[in-house]
Specification:
There is one protein chain. By secondary structure, the chain is mainly α. It has a domain of 59 residues. The chain is 27% helix and 4% strand. It has a two-stranded antiparallel ribbon. A hairpin with a 3-residue loop joins strand 1 and strand 2. The termini are far apart. The relative contact order is 0.17. Bound molecules: iron/sulfur cluster. Iron/sulfur cluster (SF4) binds next to helix 2.
Length: 90
């Protein structure tokens, strides 16, 4: 924890850029069977984009994940308590 009691990953100085996330998503593992089809990915990101839990345009305040990365995984579901906005993809 930082000295102001806020999670380091949620403070301004630890923001991650789109370019950094692009580099992560370029890894071969995201071209494998672990990823959802593009249309599912785009639907998930649209849900995150309209969600009040999205912080800095990148980060889910519920799980702390970068949504552009979390939404890639077939076996992930939105963690919003009381009403997941996107489900695991079979
Ligand atoms: S709670 Fe769900 S929809 Fe909202 S930002 Fe997190 S993963 Fe996305």
């Amino acid at each position: 924890m930082s000295s102001n009691g806020q999670c380091k990953g949620c403070s301004d100085e630890y923001r991650v850029t789109d370019e950094q996330i692009d580099r992560i998503l370029a890894a071969p593992m995201f071209s494998s069977g672990i990823s959802v089809p593009d249309e599912v990915y785009e639907r998930r990101l649209a849900q995150c984009g309209a969600c009040p839990k999205l912080q800095f345009g990148t980060t889910c305040a519920v799980c702390g994940c970068f949504v552009r990365i979390a939404a890639k995984y077939k076996d992930r579901a939105c963690p919003l308590p009381g009403g997941s906005r996107w489900a695991k993809h079979a």
